[in-house]
Amino acid sequence: MKKRKKSFPGKGKWDKAPHYEEAAVKAKKHLGQHFLTDETIAEKIAGTLSFSGYSKVLEIGPGMGVLTKYLLKKDAEIHVIEIDTESVAYLNNKYAELQGRIHEQDFLKYDISEIFGADQYAVTGNFPYNISSQIVFKVLENRHLVPEFSGMFQKEVARRICEKAGSKTYGILSVLTQAFYEAEYLFTVPPSVFNPPPKVDSGVLRLKRRENLSLACNERLFFRVVKTAFGQRRKTLRNSLKSFSLPDNVREDAIFGQRPEQLSTEAFIDLTVKIQPYAIPDQR
């Protein structure tokens, strides 16, 4: 078997690498399943977690466990959450060490405290493209319990999460995620290492929670300001934030002459502070 060239973070093509066993579970289109078959990449994704400050990990959508296999080698308590009944049966048969830690649930609808209580835990996985943004938003809702988050997304989404102000791809996901986490794009993965192969490249990222989880503004209002601003991203903030009915003297501030992609996360916090005294209760 040929050895693949080292490429982490990778810029070139992946050569032939050790692959997981042939599919025993059929990938289901409605679940957005694309099973990773390259064990070398799976091992690298498992290696993106530091296991610092926590001892428990939740893997979302393990499929046939190619990533799970390497997570289980870590000194941590590994849990997996999977909605596909066929995958759950396969995992129960394949990984005896996961007994009692395979949760047949929809991550987006499930209360994770049922698994971990108030304990800190990391989140990782090869995420279905069709719900990856929703997964990020749920992690943000539980950020006080999730110090680290890594995994594989559609490349475009992974880049957007990690993007900085000034880029056309910088948006809601970028600002809200980076308000609470340090975001790092790690490497790109080609379609050829999946079964079935997706039509686009994938990207692996890592998020590490910031030490200070409290924003210097009303957090609910901050989320509303960011989402409203990017709802009309081509307009200046003076126009896109009209629904807040701000006094003219506030709207004359120079920041309102900018477009949302020009504002860093810190600038959005400052913007929210300016708006906060005038926001009606149901806007907060």
From TrEMBL:
Stretches assigned to the Ribosomal RNA adenine methylase transferase N-terminal domain: 41-211
SMART domains in the record: rADc
Amino acids binding S-adenosyl-L-methionine: 34, 36, 61, 82, 106, 126
Keyword Membrane in record: no
Keywords, in A-Z order: Cytoplasm, Methyltransferase, RNA-binding, rRNA processing, S-adenosyl-L-methionine, Transferase
Keyword Nucleotide-binding: no
InterPro entries: KsgA/Erm, rRNA_Ade_diMease-like_C, rRNA_Ade_Mease_Trfase_CS, rRNA_Ade_methylase_Trfase_N, rRNA_adenine_dimethylase, SAM-dependent_MTases_sf
One Gene Ontology term of the molecular function aspect: 16S rRNA (adenine(1518)-N(6)/adenine(1519)-N(6))-dimethyltransferase activity
Enzyme Commission number, as recorded: 2.1.1.182
Subcellular localization(s) per the UniProt record: Cytoplasm
Reactions it catalyzes: adenosine(1518)/adenosine(1519) in 16S rRNA + 4 S-adenosyl-L-methionine = N(6)-dimethyladenosine(1518)/N(6)-dimethyladenosine(1519) in 16S rRNA + 4 S-adenosyl-L-homocysteine + 4 H(+)
Protein role: Specifically dimethylates two adjacent adenosines (A1518 and A1519) in the loop of a conserved hairpin near the 3'-end of 16S rRNA in the 30S particle. May play a critical role in biogenesis of 30S subunits.
Annotated family: Belongs to the class I-like SAM-binding methyltransferase superfamily. rRNA adenine N(6)-methyltransferase family. RsmA subfamily.
HAMAP family per the UniProt record, alphabetical: 16SrRNA_methyltr_A (MF_00607)
Name under which the protein is recorded: Ribosomal RNA small subunit methyltransferase A
